[in-house]
Batch of 2 targets.
Target 1
Amino acid sequence: LDQVQVIQGPVRLVLTAEMSLGSGTPGAGEAKTAVDQEGKPAMAEQLPANFRTACRVCVYPGQPWFTVQGLSVANTDPRAWTLVSYFHYLPSSIAGKAADDEATSAAWRDPTAGAFYGAIDPAGVFKIEFWKDKAGGEHPDARQDVNAPLASGEVRALPEAILYLGGVMGPDLDAWKSLETRIRSLGRITAR
């Protein structure tokens, strides 16, 4: 985490963060790749690249949700590379442990705690899929495809897209669906 700007307003708290991954030797670090149903990652097609990214988090007091938005990605690597997609990664640990959390398509559910936590995309621009592989590994992906080549030193604004992250208590999937419906209706209200 490189820096965070905080703006406290009467309606919301806005956090804008810049983060870097990798520095120095290009190719250092770990490449994240797709994982199959067994939990085995695919072979990386290239060495990891150094980059810097900015995102915004908006917290609304009294609401069971907040929003996240990717703002930009900068190539800080000496090599050019392609930004295929970016992820909001949402691991579970409802009630303090992930082992008993179950994946629904876009949320985690802890049946013992009677709680849900997940992602809602009113605009329909993210590909959201929460699942566990056969080894028990979690894959809580909310991904937006970009497919943009980035030259060394280039900064790319990310497509404007806001993802809602929320939680709700309830004994069954109807509780989560109710929160989804509420947030989807909010997501259709925009101001320019």
Target 2
Amino acid sequence: YAYELAHHYLVKGNGPKALETLERGLRAAVDYRAPTGEAGRLAQEVGSFYSGQFRFDSSQFPDGIQAEILKMLKRVAAEQPRNIYAIRSHAAYLSAEDALEIYKKTIAALKSERTKRYFKYLASYKAYPIASKVLTQAHATRTQWAALLKTSQTSKKKADIDAAAAKKVEVDKAYAAAVKALEEVISIYPEGG
């Protein structure tokens, strides 16, 4: 119920107290006796605070509420490496690369196979866009190579033939990187297909 109290503090204009209350709630969520519904709701409220859904006097946070929330989430996640609510909330606001690293560390720290499987799913969800970007870059490189190849076949100039050959090497490297990235996604969460 920490989110109710935190919301109250926020409405009353006490943002620091609201964040302190959210942190206290997140720390309590690591206890196996904590109701998962309440802990999940708390994590959802952290997202509402972060997104600015709740309006308040932002002068209390010179660097912005988002920066303060990220600091708090990072601190709780570091001090409680099995606090899935803090970790998941923290990773939600990071780049895919940073979130993936956090998820990998979390998977190594977890004991429950069920929870590990969940975090493997989350990690694969963050890894896929990274792999997809690498694959898109490989496709773009192949398109460039195709244009160079066509030019070299038409012109028959050594410089054009050499440029096409060099680009072909880039294509092969780009696709090898894409395959490696996609294989990583599958290795993280094989159950995902």
